[in-house]
Structure to design on (1264 residues):
């Protein structure tokens, strides 16, 4: 009987991201899918701005963009008028008050997205076994290393396989065998269910917003328009709702009926079909799984755990982040870095996001029917640390934009996401709620553009460290004349025997390649040093004066000298300013392997900075750090 | 005996670009190369900022960037010091006063660049026949359609082929059989010749600028450092010069000798090689072919026509533009659009550029040894229409940056590049020399960022029309309240029977796809309409009011509403302002199929605008335009 690190069931977005990450990190994977081949047509297609950050951080954005997807910068709203419909307003997909690298939604057929992951997996020797399905599993603990037995079977044949594994993951979608076997219930947040018709095709029309995302309300019904790659368009039509008098969840419609309805709704504009690529009618309700795992061995994610309306285009994006969240946590446990208990944070973090998504989904419908706020009401772009009074309506509007763009994800305080009630109570932690930094634990790191010193390239700081399973220590070094001693102390404390950094040193530390950029000393931490100075005059010389440990990160030294139009004109160092850190004294932003902020600490002379970090990491790593008292 | 549209000899950059363009436009191509396979190591590697524009316009930039090339933003200068060498300054590859989309040089192994073209050619059924070489050709005119007979032979075998062709092109490189057969002489501009050693490899070093482009002068000799993809670096070492007392053009050096020299030059820094990928020693002098063609049937381009030092990284970039220049001109003649006489402009335009390149190459060496100008001397970024007094030194500095970035290409006045002495003398032409526009005929169109109205995408206007053999009519429409009538008149004159636009209408005009963006009416013109207004409020409604002919370009309607930091704060419409056109009255910039400005005309009510354009196009197209008098 063969042993695996993980058995993954289902090769949709959630399963593929998990497989891609763990495959890159060298785990032995059995990945099966019931379908004979990847998605051919239809299904999900919207990649949110935040997901593009994620795909780029995985090194896969260029492969996605090579398919020339459609990009949605704005949403248009159409309402009934005397002669049919008229445009009542437009709304940015990702308004300027959100500091996003890619302020648009990218639309591409799910099959093409799947293929990008499949090709990457194959580079690491992971292939999806098709068409196979899971027939049985149990966590019988007969083998303490591989506690789960899993059986799979060829969909059309008699072949079967049985194996043992450390983990089992269900990315099976809404109808999950694993979830049923576990007896995990689906909880319905909003009792309203809908039947949707969805049609992808190439159309001829004089409707002026056919290349925009539109929500159209007319006397003949409602429709949602979503542009696609290759001149295609997707139309969503609500066919029935549980609020209808004659509600029938089995109500259906033919392709011709949906086309006829679309023609009526779009009047006075014409619409004709050159071809229909995909057509489907499906009932969908809101649902959320009550648990994502029972034993931290068998996990679930994606549509298996949460279903909702397609209106906000969130399904695939949430699936991406479910998988990424789980991937690095499994990695940290299996690599001996973290306590097994940290696996509990997968459910607590991701279930909250799904709940927020479902709440949002209900609120979103309501918002559509209200007036839009004016530019003045929404306020200016920059994330300031000033508290701003906002009325409820504007707050909902902003939250909606944040949510649909993917930037609304905010994990609650826990061992990873520092707060004043975190077990690590060192006085050097900086708190967002006290306006000591703009960086909020549990939220994504704010993007910042800087100059890489070694080659003078203008780069995106938040993308400089890839998804590689490492914590990212963004050291904002302020003014080197002020922080020289603090950096020397930081460096010498890092190399102290029981520091978080030394405790997890690479075994092959002495033979690491000269060209290793990210993990010269340890697989679990990468440092990036940003100085509040101009590259040309100053930072090239500063690099030479750095202590050896920091100098080893020569490819991760940056000059904070790029002008940022979002900031006031007295800004000297835009990245420092964006982080809410002193342009003189700097500070350290600890970012989790998935790009979310963990904590922010002061950069001071003496041992304090590393002491604070020892306390923070000491709450979840597998070894005692610092003095005995640091193990909380 | 088989007939071809063109026989192309040599599959280096110049031959590949020509083959790619003509293959896309449906020509029948025989392409042969002596080498058994594409370049494996070494050779050219620098892609200049302007060439990235070109590659993007060809739709090939993403494929180049997928190889993760190195990017050079700055050049560092090192000079002898007491203990070895020290940095004396740095210099932007493409300083801010050049309005470039990609202000960096991209370094990638020539073989990877060749493969990008080869893959694109295969999509159009063009394959390079290897290893074959040309053995004979003559323009005997025995067949008036296919006047040239060409014989080729397998390099290692007895197989031969003979064919007839309309055109023959030599992209054979410096040692050209075709050039020799034609008896075309090489003229040597600078009598100084050099022997260069070049080495690509992976090194370990503490030299801090190893990822920068550097020119290093030391007491032990001189070296040029160029970073490459995949942690590689290229070193150029001048081994001998014809100015040396003991000059020997056959002087050579071993790999070990070059490494030993590099070690001496780089002191006090160390350098060690992990591996050497390529090493070569070659003599090179400056040379330029006296003719590029004798009969406008047999053409030459690339290294076959011009050789020079590798210092400024210009070879491949000049080759790209040689080929592009020839491709659309052959296409226009063979498609029946242009007089055969226009083929003379290939030599007159491209030979001038090669001469400038050789002059620059000589001047560049001199400049290196002088002090660098200060930022204040170089002046601010924007291209204004104000004449600015500059001292000679700053002028040379600017020209050098323009030249190395590829933006220094400026074709002289001719039938394509309007000037006050052009045969078209209509009073509506706008002249750069009179500061009526910033757009200079013979120079690249200034880049501008605008909002595409149909889908609200933020786009690069200069990239919106691909290399497709069409002239690009950028109509800057100003304020629609002012120009409504002018646009209506322009549209109705376009459709008049003998207009430049109607005279070359597509034969299949009635059955053109609804989704054809670029050539709905004619294969030789594409229109793009930019309004000085905000998309949201205004231009979506303006589109509905356009005359039918213009409305057909619905995918090429833009709102000039994107803020541009290079321009003064009173700017309302940045693209109009950059073109030096009125934000109220607009104007039309005619851009050649290769992206260079042809002429600029006023947009006025009445027939004048199209009359002026009829005059301009009437000087080179194959049909009489407008009234009889318009055929000049």
């Amino acid at each position: 009987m063969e042993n695996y690190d993980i058995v993954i069931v289902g090769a949709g977005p959630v399963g593929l991201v998990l497989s891609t990450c763990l495959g890159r990190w060298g785990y032995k994977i059995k990945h099966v899918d019931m379908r004979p081949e990847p998605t051919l047509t239809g299904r999900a297609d919207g990649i949110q701005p935040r997901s593009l950050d994620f795909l780029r951080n995985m090194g896969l954005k260029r492969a996605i963009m090579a398919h020339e997807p459609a990009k949605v910068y704005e949403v248009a709203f159409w309402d009934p008028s005397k002669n049919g419909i008229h445009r009542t307003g437009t709304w940015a997909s990702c308004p300027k008050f959100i500091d996003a690298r890619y302020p648009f939604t990218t639309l591409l057929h799910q099959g093409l997205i799947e293929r990008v992951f499949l090709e990457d997996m194959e580079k690491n020797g992971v292939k999806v076994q098709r068409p196979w399905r899971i027939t049985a599993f149990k966590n019988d603990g007969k083998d303490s290393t591989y506690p789960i037995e899993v059986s799979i079977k060829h969909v059309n044949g008699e072949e079967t396989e049985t194996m043992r594994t450390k983990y089992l993951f269900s990315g099976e979608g809404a109808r999950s065998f694993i979830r049923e076997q576990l007896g995990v219930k689906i909880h319905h947040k909003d009792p309203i269910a809908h039947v949707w018709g969805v049609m992808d095709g190439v159309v001829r029309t004089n409707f002026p917003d056919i290349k925009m995302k539109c929500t159209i309300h007319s006397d003949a019904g409602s429709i949602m328009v979503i542009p696609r790659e290759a001149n295609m368009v997707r139309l969503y039509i609500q066919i029935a709702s549980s609020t209808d008098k004659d509600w029938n969840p089995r109500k259906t419609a033919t392709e011709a009926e949906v086309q006829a309805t679309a023609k009526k709704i779009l009047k006075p504009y014409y619409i004709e079909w050159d071809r229909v690529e995909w057509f489907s009618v499906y009932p969908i309700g809101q649902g959320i799984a009550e648990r994502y795992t029972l034993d931290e061995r068998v996990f679930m994610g994606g549509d298996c755990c949460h279903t909702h309306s397609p209106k906000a285009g969130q399904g695939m994006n949430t699936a991406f982040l479910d998988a990424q969240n789980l991937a690095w946590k499994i990695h940290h446990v299996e690599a001996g870095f973290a306590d097994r208990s940290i696996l509990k944070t997968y459910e607590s973090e991701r279930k909250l996001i799904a709940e927020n998504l479902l709440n949002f989904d209900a609120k979103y419908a309501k918002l559509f029917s209200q007036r839009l706020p004016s530019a003045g009401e929404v306020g200016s772009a920059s994330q300031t640390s000033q508290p701003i009074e906002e009325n409820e309506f504007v707050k909902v509007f902003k939250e909606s934009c944040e949510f649909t763009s993917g930037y609304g994800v905010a994990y609650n305080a826990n061992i990873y996401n520092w707060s004043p009630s975190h077990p690590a109570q060192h006085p050097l932690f900086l708190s967002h709620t006290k306006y000591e930094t703009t960086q909020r634990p549990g939220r994504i790191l704010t993007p910042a553009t800087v100059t890489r010193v070694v080659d003078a390239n203008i780069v995106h700081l938040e993308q400089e460290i890839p998804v590689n399973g490492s914590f990212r220590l963004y050291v904002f070094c302020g003014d080197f004349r002020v922080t020289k001693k603090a950096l020397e102390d930081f460096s010498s404390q890092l190399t102290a025997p029981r520091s978080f950094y030394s405790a997890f040193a690479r075994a092959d530390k002495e033979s690491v390649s000269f060209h290793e950029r990210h993990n010269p000393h340890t697989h679990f931490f990468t440092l990036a040093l940003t100085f509040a100075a101009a590259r040309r005059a100053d930072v090239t010389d500063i690099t030479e004066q750095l202590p050896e440990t920091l100098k080893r990160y020569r490819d991760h030294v940056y000059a904070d000298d790029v002008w940022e139009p979002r900031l006031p004109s007295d800004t000297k160092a835009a990245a420092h300013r964006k982080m809410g850190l002193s342009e003189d004294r700097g500070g350290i932003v600890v970012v989790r392997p998935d790009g979310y902020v963990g904590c922010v600490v002061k950069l001071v002379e003496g041992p304090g900075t590393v002491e604070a970090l020892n306390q923070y990491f000491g709450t979840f790593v597998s070894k005692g750090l610092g003095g005995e008292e640091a193990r909380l």
Q: What stands out?
A: Residues 2-65+109-185+287-352 of chain B form a domain with the FAD/NAD(P)-binding domain fold (CATH 3.50.50.60). Chain B has three domains: 2-65+109-185+287-352, 70-107+191-284, 449-630. The mean pLDDT of chain B is 91. The longest helix of chain B spans residues 344-368.
